[in-house]
Fold these 3 entries.
Entry 1:
Amino acid sequence: MKNPRSALCKTSIMASSDIFKVFGDQLLDSTINAFDNLFLQLLLKASQGKRFVCEEADRALNAMVKSVTPLPLLNKLRPYVSHSNPRVRAKAAITISKSVSKMGLEGMNEFGLVSLVQMAADF
């Protein structure tokens, strides 16, 4: 995804969508920080200027939200609330919003309503 060629970048983003669909929660169990690096790159690509790369990164983020259980995903998303790039924070906020809406009230209570409100306030 770090390749400057847009077509190659878009193809790698499409591959990450497939990875989310196939592996789902197993990506969060890994001991290496590969998921964190992948997620950061997706946020960066979703917030850049090239429209077709941005749209594909948004689709990959949506595939991630659909494929990964919301509670552990929110724990992974929490550090991006305070990212230095405001566009990355905005994309993280959208992803958190979609994940929270997937949770339901029981999941929100399990995560902690106070924590959710604090995250929203930090944005």
Entry 2:
Amino acid sequence: MKTTAILKSISLVAVLGAALAAPVLAQPGPGMWGGMGGMGMQNGGPGAGRMGPGMGDRVGATLMTTEERTAMMIKMRAVKTYDECKLVQDEQHKAMEARAKEKGITLPAPRQNRCDMMKARGLIS
């Protein structure tokens, strides 16, 4: 009887320990292509000098300062209509194309249209 209680206690501790450890182990790391703070293009890590998977639509963002990215997010959140969104987006893309040209970088076409996404989510009309 005492052995059964001890085995139940040990099993309970093991299950609770595993349940608490699982979320910690499931946290994503910086990734091969340099997530936030990882060894990415800006740090001369594995992605330096070339674009990794999914980096095509973020090249423009790497050409902006933190303040410029924040200002762009604020502008995009402030738009009310699809046409206004497209205008802001097109102006930004042209500015980033010019900046990329100055640095000798070819800016790829965006893989997704943020205005379409915002409209689909009901954020703009």
Entry 3:
Amino acid sequence: MLQLEGLTRRFGANTAVDGVSLSVPAGQMVGVIGRSGAGKSTLLRMINRLTEPSEGRILHDGVDVTGLKGQELRNWRTECAMIFQQFNLVQRLDVLTNVLVGRLNHRHGFAATVASLFKHFSAAERAMALAALARFDLDDQALQRADTLSGGQQQRVAIARALMQQPKIILADEPIASLDPRNAQVVMDALRDVNRQDGITVLVNLHHLDTAREYCDRIVAMQQGRMMFDGPPAELTGARIREIYGVSEDEFAEAEVPDGAPAAAPVAHARAAPMPA
């Protein structure tokens, strides 16, 4: 069980996340929605402790995550993997090595440095990485440089890398925001597969309501750092969106497209698209 108690983050006079309390049972897939500046990314980064809370607590299975330091904090970041919008792969390295990097969190100090510099991974770890790539139809690309892959393929590599951490939770911060609808579908299918097949808790920030409704067990809607809705997808109706945000669903979706990102259609509009090579 992941529990957030009054979680708050201030940046000077600005309150990015304002007193969010939330309990997420193990194995649930939660979509976090909200217009730009709602505090979605800050919320996920606080859970992973990439951003420190100003107030409140994060608990996981009774452990106070907000009090962890040193190796205990590193262990938490291993159990709570992050996936980012811009993939965060080492572009000049091959796909297999990028996935194997996920095992570095299981090593400490000099051993991790040696493994990183000299690509020194065991046969068992390599087999594990290849299996993760095969799961997402990427085993044929294992020896290609990461920068030769499409955006959707790179994001699936990032998911495979996260799985190498053997996490209990995956936090996906806008993982499909920069992808076209076809690749967005493939990435969301991969996240749902990880959630359903592995029982890993997934919290994912999303731009489109249709995508959140299709893939998530539960939706949390945020506005100006506050949680305005928490419930099953069926209860987040058009009328409820207008009540919370003062706009229609279409206006909400349009406002959610970030500057410089493609105005992709919701994933639900691309269900028949084949998986890219």
